[in-house]
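User: Fold this; tokens only.

Assistant: Input:
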Amino acid sequence: MRKILLLVFGLVLLLGMAFAQQRRVVLAVGGKTAVVYLPLTLVERLGYFQQEGLEVVIQDLQAGSRALAALNGGSADVVMGFYDHTIQMQAQGRDITAFVEVGRYPGVVLGVRTDLERVQGIADLKGMRVGVTAPGSSTNFYLNHWLIKAGLRPTDVAVIGVGTGAQAVAAVERRQIDAIVNVDPAITLLQRRGLIRVLADTRTAQGARAVFGGEYPAAVLYTTRGWLERNPETAQKLVNAMVRGLRWMQGKSAEEIARVLPEEYFLGDRELYLQVLRNSTEMFSKTGRFSDSAPLRPLVVLSGFDEAVARSQIDLKKTYTNAFVDRVPKP
């Protein structure tokens, strides 16, 4: 009897630990205040994760490459980051899968300091210092893409990590960099202050078409395929919450969205942030579902400068799944 009781106790303990592991999710993000990741903060502050029975611990690591490193190192379960990394990781033999699309366009902008009047195009950046969120992040990928299209090599510029938000703004103000590849609200704030001129812009459908030829999966939730297979119910709850947040955003005014956000997101200029929100609504997915054709565009971009991707046989079907989005309850 004692052995039976000990066995039952052990099974209950293991089940309890499994439940606790599934309920608590460590989610890394590369710059939580960046507008491209706005739905994550909305879902958190609206309480949708809690209503799904999840305890989501958000780690703000200020750059997508750091968030990816946290996943690869085992300190994070899931990442809110850019889809490009799933392709890059498959080329390196790692099975990373995106399981809900948040952004249809990257929202990334390349700008140059206004005092550098001799820079009239991207080709003129040769030999200059260009700030990205962090080396190896998606902002670095897009910089490489723009440089190659302009006839330059990625090594023709000095890449400097400047993070997002106020840190990125300060790097331009102090002239620590000559150009910047970053996202809102930092970009719009720099424009408002007359500190940069925009050379390339993917914040809108028109801009994304000009750069990539159409929709380009950007902000997503991604994780290892192994984690998805071990935790399908937890993954489903994460997707339920994210899709609910995307639905909540539909038809909401900038003022309604801003009321949900903490004050530090506004970078000291609430009116400016409201304008950013008004200009950003078309960036976000309405459904969370991946298009069957759009993932090909990041593959083409990465193949232009990433040798590992270029020489690999990438199976795009392994880099994303709509299985969880398709099971989200109807509104």
